[in-house]
Design brief:
Layout: H1 5-18, E1 22-25, H2 30-42, E2 46-48, E3 58-60, E4 74-76, H3 81-84, H4 93-104, E5 112-120, E6 129-135, H5 138-147, E7 149-150, H6 152-158, E8 165-170, E9 193-197, E10 202-206, H7 211-214, H8 217-233, E11 236-238, E12 240-246, E13 252-258, H9 265-269, E14 279-284, E15 288-292, E16 298-301, E17 306-310, H10 320-325, E18 331-333, E19 336-338, E20 343-344, E21 355-357, E22 363-365, E23 379-383, E24 400-408, E25 418-420, H11 424-432, E26 435-437, E27 450-452, H12 465-475, E28 486-490, H13 510-520, E29 526-529, E30 532-535, H14 549-554, H15 560-574, H16 583-596
Helix pairs in contact: 2-5, 11-16, 15-16
Amino acid sequence: MTSNIRLNKWIHEMADLCRPDRIHWCDGSDSEYQSLLQMMVSKGVAIPLNPKKRPGCYLFRSHPSDVARVENRTFISSLRQDDAGPTNNWIDPQSLKSTMTDLFSGSMVGRTMYVIPFSMGPVGSPLSKIGVEITDSPYVVANMRIMTRIGKPVLDFLGSDGEFVPCLHSVGYPLLPGMVDPQWPCAPIEKKFISHFPEERLIWSYGSGYGGNALLGKKCFALRIASVQARDEGWLAEHMLILKITNPEGKSKYITGAFPSACGKTNLAMLVPTLPGWKVETVGDDIAWMKFGKDGRLYAINPEAGFFGVAPGTSAQSNPNAMKCVEKNTLFTNVALTDDGDVWWEGIGYDAPDHLIDWQGRDWYKGQSKEPAAHPNSRFTTPAHQCPSISPDWIAEEGVPISAILIGGRRPSTIPLVNESFSWEHGVFLGSIMGSEITAATISDQIGKVRRDPFAMLPFMGYHIGDYFRHWLNIGKMTTPEKLPKIYYVNWFRKNAEGKFIWPGYGENSRVLKWIFERLEGKAASQKTPIGNLPTPDSLDLDGLRVNPSELASILTVDLGGWKREAEDVRSYYRIFENKLPSALADQLDQLDQRLR
């Protein structure tokens, strides 16, 4: 199926190891996609939704043990443990490969081995990379077809000697004679391994069929392996949205934003502004690859072709564009099913019907059932081109020029609504100390507690976090300061004494984007504070906004006591990096301490 010698050799080696009954090279065609879906329907794996309500849409239900990223089973298996760092799980690569080779041996007996050639980014773009995923999951194939560009065009571009990232995946459930295939095959948690070998640019994933554990082009390649490639090649692979914002005069800028999972990246990327004359268009909602152009500016592409969004909380109010996106040709995982063949989830914007089938296939009754009908991390996989707000530039091969980088997470106190960094170095410092409440996007017993999540990359860095900070600082030295994006720390999630959100969020976030846009234009005023530049009281457009004045003032000023506690906590946090913490960041913390006195 390909003239690429290295690829053919690898496929043969993996087939000999996994021993599938058959091998299928994916061509990415619609007929192939439909055939896979019909096969899954016939086996009871996929449930077709009502074609009058959701044409081309299907529902899947995972095993209850396989519903999110498994960070404690995700490994960065670098040659030296020190290169993985204190925030990654490390196993010696020789030992890990031995363990996983035993697991993969015969893992695809009774199954089809699917070979998925895929491009992260437009095929042929100088900012794109190619991967090839081997999997025994037709669910993974269907999702990868939406999330990446797959098939013959990728193989054609790869040619006989092109480079690719090998990605091996198995659900870890061989079908021996007489065995019945379960609805969602997977391995027990202790046998799940999502493993990355950065020096080899290699990914092995075993035992999970869920999202980022199994769609290996997503977090595994686009962030963990790509971050190592980016470090070595002088660019950035980041957990960031990309949006285009246009003012009433028709002038546009491109902004990226780093937010932890389930903290509103998709909502912001698809934002509908409440301010007259302003327009936001979507370039990407989750991942940005940024490389320097000939003019010395950073240009970004969205390496994905679809959206893998969190369903709960998505509604016509919070994200009308996402709701229109999922009206057709969408795969839903772990949402609830209505009696008339539609989907429902908590926060969809309207009451649940009296009866549903919940995400585990059980009857659910309004007012009686105690558990959520949809899993808190239930998902939709939908093509990006269906999004009403999609920018024509989302497939620009040269990328889009980035003017600003947003960072932020869920912080109920201390962090103000918006804070402009003093410099690139100060912005990297703010990115390094980012914190957020833990959400349902990861399996954890710490949900609701705050953890440090630098640049929203804590679960996704492919190497030592201290070296990652140093790479960000080095990026700032690769061009002139005026060509670098400005960095802004935002927080939509401040709460009042009653525990309610102060800022209305959603479309009203356009007011913050407007201030940032006008700061970039040199038009909006700011006030210098110990933590950065905050809006002056009259520089943020609040016309028509109903927010308690005293509460609004609290999110536009510096909580000195809160920031002193924050600085103490950061100093403790920085100790885990030991000699790998860049001195520039230690200096930034000392300077913050001085300014807070």
